[in-house]
Design a protein that fits this description.
Mean pLDDT: 90
Number of strands: 0
Structural class: mainly alpha
Helix content: 40-55%
Low-confidence stretches: none
Pfam family, one: DUF4327
Order of helices and strands: HHHH
Protein name: DUF4327 domain-containing protein
Distance between the termini: 24 Å
Strand content: under 5%
Oligomer: single chain
InterPro entries: DUF4327 (IPR025477)
Radius of gyration: 12 Å
Shape: globular
Organism: Neosynechococcus sphagnicola sy1
Amino acid sequence: MVLHPMVKLQRQVRSLVDSKLIKSSDSLWKIALLYGDDWPHWKQELQDFGFAMQDPVSELLLVDTWEESDD
């Protein structure tokens, strides 16, 4: 089974929280500083899933399954 790219992002972000580099209460835009040139791609992915950059990191970590909508 191939992992959805968002699962990989979620795991990386969870690792950042676990290592105390960011807090789960931080806004999603804070991870932009850690992703550099790749950030525009991840920002678009997050927005496609309905996230706003002001949402807390904890919202991203709560997602159980990542499924693309067909619309």
